[in-house]
Write a structure and sequence with these properties.
The structure is a homohexamer. Chain A is α/β, with parallel strands linked by helices. Chain A has two domains: 119 residues, Aldehyde Oxidoreductase, domain 3, CATH 3.90.1170.20; 146 residues, Aldolase class I (TIM Barrel). Chain A is 42% helix and 18% strand. The first copy, chain A, has eleven helices and twelve strands. In chain A, the strands form three sheets. The first copy, chain A, has a six-stranded parallel beta sheet with strand order 6-11-10-9-8-7. A four-stranded antiparallel beta sheet of chain A has the order 3-5-1-12, covered by helices on one side. In chain A, helix 10 links the parallel strand 10 and strand 11. In chain A, helix 1 packs across helix 3. The radius of gyration of chain A is 23 Å and the shape is elongated. Chain A starts with 12 loop residues before the first helix and ends with a strand. Chains A and B meet through helix 1, helix 2, helix 4, strand 7 and helix 6 of A and helix 1, helix 2, helix 4, strand 7 and helix 6 of B.
């Protein structure tokens, strides 16, 4: 088995299994795969190769395995390119062997999960490659598909990215509306500190350097620098002098990210790696017996 | 309220409500929106405008409404650009008024649903616009996000597209592996007909014109012409002479679709409009009181 | 193992397992089988035969197997009369061997599922036998038990019947109220065609021969002939001349079905085979060791 | 509103609502009622009468109301023949008024629930009427539809019947296998008494009069007399002399029940009233505006 | 394996598994055990001993086993002190061996279930020991943790206690408000008898001896004597003379229970054994390799 | 309405509603409140006062309100002592008015939730009062009831306490086993930092002062001082000099906490306030009309 670029702790198997069962129920509908039942003999066996139709970073093979094996536990799936590893165009990722009917019936669910998660991993890995050599980490946001957040954040990790908040409850992120409502940035940070538990990190979003100074003075753990130019970011890094984690955000893409990373910020966040990643093109090639 | 380009029957409200509750639970986590609770007074009220940051076709506002109103039924959402209508860059889509805390806490869930579904509607509408004036309909596939298929197919309808199968059980689609397993195309179609109910439509995928002839002779209702050049497609249309519905598939995108549509096929299917649509960029602008 | 009259693709195992777990939870309640726990030693073993108390067609043995094996995976169930096969009065269908406690505790759930589904299969097979030698297929309706539709439609297939729509979404069936609302039959069919995907079959219900003509002209795929006499049905078959599938419906029972089938209609639908089928009388006979 | 023959405490509304939502989801499928959406204008209104096509006892109207109002809370349902009341052939049970689309879309779910439960109530009421004037109560069994037991037992109450155990945990019912395993009837009853809580009633099934004597001596609260002739039952009643509740079971139907009731037993149980009741034929008649 | 003081029929494994999966999902959150993933090598193995930090009665080990084995089925758990047995301070209850990561990640869920249920068993066993030598049984109430009632009642059985009603539906318990509403105790009992099935036991709560007489005359199966002094209880026992089961309730604790039991009542009920039991202090001791 | 000592953001209403519906389903069982249905006329109305039988801190009234209003939305609940406020013995907390049947049927679920959560709030408030005047905050642990963690942590906040981690995923807490596995404390902290996102706080548990020094040097955000004497704690505070948050843990109770707080630690954590809190004794007093 290929070595992953990024070794990632697998998702809990019982959560993967639940998601796959729901997806299979969605795709089998009420009468199941009526095409396969009508045309493929129950005794037929298949040998199929999951292959990449384009290069990318793999994520989500546990969903693929679960899709096949939920329909028939006798199906054997052997992985050659694991989650967190890169695949070349045309390269085989896994081989699936077993009864033909359940392999055909589970194919779409397997591909839908793995294609989507690999697409996110690939988009992430691309941005990560563009900031190589800088201290900047690429991080995701809460702009994820409803119901799939934990899985999409896992795919970000497979891509070499880092996770931002998983939900509204595992970190304080004070934005402009909060600042206005609280009566100013300093007050907002103080209010956050006084109500939050000690494990809760406080981040505040700022648009201007004077706000940065205020946030630093008020003791924010991190500061999100929203839509600042590289010049402003560089100045922010200089003024901060390591007193807080700095996150650059807004208009991050393959064209802009290198310049942002060069400013010395600690983090660069991107919503697009989850909300607008292209599905990685994967396919199942059936081998003639 | 703006008139939709495409009037679409709304999704059942109780299904939308269930999906939204799950997404809110995912985003609120265990402790809820701790930032807002710490910084925004319970008595604060907000007036926010949902606006488009880029032009597109809207879909999924019922999820947006449900997100706000599930957290607080006293929130008022009034829509000016409904599902199925086009929005210009900067145009207001809806106005949200009510207590500030639940509006802030539901914002991300609202945007995640509506941005994603509007992205699919926009991608669909774009392809639909490129085949205008031809008889071709744009149709989706089963390459959808696990768990969201019914919603994404709804978004396709908002984009002016048509839905292909919702699952493996609501239509026969005979592909190459089925043909091989059944011992040939004619046998596969016959097997399908003999087991399927009378409401079930039989489609068969072919790569070559001789297969097309066999499929027509065997009585397929529709024929999927896989990865054929416009010339071949045109010849397929000619030979079919209206005896079956013809669907072109494979390598469909904004560059290629017009030529495909010009061949006279009835349907053009695209996986990308669901599996790789970019999220439509929507934002919530809070008005100062 | 006996050969089935009708070979039927099994239901997905994970859906059967879910339904069985719910039913076991319903029957075990909060404290479980307190009678068995109090009176049967944990070490006792049982050898029981599932037998038919009356002749019939078997359906639903996977639920029976799952009921026993969910409570204790060490229970062995060996089937001699599989789904889709006929059983004689007194004939053994399966042998169950294992620890006595879980066999006794799962008995009622096993029998409730298999008795009900076999009852439906038996009622279907009876009607099917009465139309033997005619082209008519027996088909079911949406008059099924809430929550069990997919399973009851499976039982219809075990009985040699065919399935009509599984839900409101997998076929157009235009009835009198739709016709009135749409402003006539031709308009209704046109509206249906223009909104539905190409995989969707359009059927229309008619009471009179002039409506049949209109439906044929408008291009309906199937026509439901509601409550027509055999003479009218025969005339409908003659006028249609194969241009559409014809379904006879209304007042179908063991007394009337042969005459209806003799008219040459393609399909005869019956709600009673699902909504009013008698449970097949099955029992578990415990063998003395 | 007609007065019920049997006033029955309604089922908890939130449980009815859950069951109805599941059934609507099953019947609407992924795309909803595509026929109605295509043919009925959104503005159309309907006025429909739920009427009986045959006489019977009504049960389950809360499911009917919930089916319509879940799809559209603006639908008005007014009941004239409530649960527990008898309806004549052709009599109106309820009037439904509101937007036509959701009324048409919810119709089948409404009828499937109310038809089935009214069928059970009707079958029960028929047996109850045949034992009028005797002390015998008609009672149901655990031979119910998986997932619907609480609802079917409610229908039995609407029919004037009584409920036996709801599950394996709310009463001890010692049958022949338990007796053998426990080493005799006396031992089985003693074991039950020693482990069960004080709220738990102990019933034992016997085939012979000597077993009856043993059960009485051992202090059974109730005794199930299995498949005994009227003469034996009469003798059992005489010997028992009020020391235990006596339940007759086995081969109970409309032909046999009066003779059984005349023996003086306290209870007569029937599985057929739940597992094999015919659906009551109900229909929705749309009024022309 | 130590012999249990009280042999208790295990809970159905599939219900335990469901509860454990929910609890693991609650404790793993979205990103799982990030501490263990970061610090413990995937190849590390552990050998841990579940030990008691204080003496008590064990209950709930199936939850403990399920917690570890749901995360990794290769984990081996071997029990030396089973449910229903007593453990000494420092005594080993079970040994857990397998991969270190899932053992560390499941630890808290395992302890939370087993500590709580063992705490209930211990509190129950303590009261049971204080009434030894009297005929009195200790029984629980419906004052249980929402969602865990069946499990907590199981723990009571492990403690040697008996279960009262599991819910409002498996027994009639007439309290003061019911008596007032029904127009008196005799009427209330008569109303209960006339509506309840024959398996339903009728208990009535009384405060005074004259009410006891009325309840006995009206044929109550059990009588709950609320907050009576030992003298009054003794008089109640005398007057009842075995005609009904007598339950003492109110102000039951370790100080008072012996005197109450000495009065000759059949049952003594305590809410505190479920609603206010201290968690039994259990810990997992990791052995150095 | 009394002013709360601690104003706490309410839990999301839809999560409370779901938990209450499950608890009502558990308590109503299959047949509902058969006692009330039999004895209380449908027309009876009640006026009941929720009162404290002992002094304490209130938490969980939203569950109480939901319990009553889920069964009947016409029930009116008016609160005089809200969550986060203290109640005296005998003081009225809320008044419930409406139909008598649903008030009686929901009583136990209402009390079970509110009694348990108020018990936790009361135990927390007691510890909080004992550290008044020191900088120490009282915090909870993950030793909570499976399934109720978010609610119990809410109750801790009502008691004036703070929340520690909600799950294994929202903070790094490095304990002895992690340190051993990682090859030392410094390595463990470094590994945590390198894999965790920037919002993740890193805490490490130490037993000795030399470990404290190592943890400070390695940059831990917080340090858990396990089972240290007040003298050691005081020395730890001195050495730390504000470089990290210090949490004292182990053997914390009403007797020991003041001395621990006096050492100057920032946090004192207690498992007992959630896992072993006594239920607050609340009761519903029905007023005679």
């Amino acid at each position: 088995m290929k070595k992953p670029v990024i070794p990632v702790e697998p998702l809990p198997a019982f959560l993967v299994a639940d998601a796959v069962r729901s997806a299979l129920a969605e795709d089998l509908g009420r009468a199941g795969d009526i095409t396969t039942a009508a045309t493929v003999p129950a005794s037929a066996r298949a040998h199929a190769v999951l292959a990449a139709r384009e290069p990318g970073r793999i994520a989500g093979l546990d969903f693929c395995i679960a899709a096949f094996r939920t329909l028939d536990p006798s199906i054997d799936v052997s992985i050659s390119v694991p989650d967190g590893a890169d695949v070349a165009r045309g390269e085989a990722i896994a081989v699936i062997r077993g009864p033909a009917r359940p392999i055909l019936s589970a194919e779409r669910v397997a591909l839908n999960f793995t294609g989507r998660l690999s697409g996110i991993a690939t988009a992430t890995a691309h941005l990560v490659s563009l900031v190589a050599g800088t201290p900047a980490r690429v991080t995701c946001t809460r702009k994820t598909t409803p119901g799939l957040r934990a899985f999409e954040k896992y795919a970000v990790r497979c891509g070499g990215g880092y996770n931002h908040r998983f939900a509204l409850d595992d970190g304080i992120l004070i934005k402009d509306n909060h600042i206005v409502a609280a009566g100013g940035l300093t007050r907002a940070i103080a209010a956050a500190r006084s109500s939050a538990g000690h494990m809760v990190h406080v981040e505040v979003e700022v648009d201007r350097l004077d706000q940065l100074e205020e946030a630093l003075a008020a003791g924010a753990n991190s500061i999100l620098l929203d839509n600042m130019s590289p010049d402003l970011l560089r100045e922010a890094v200089r003024r901060t002098g390591g007193r807080a984690v700095l996150e650059a955000s807004g208009n991050i893409n393959a064209t802009t990210i290198a310049a942002v990373a060069a400013t010395g910020v600690d983090l660069i966040s991107s919503g697009a790696i989850t909300h607008s990643a292209k599905c990685l093109d994967l396919g199942l090639d059936f081998q003639t017996a």
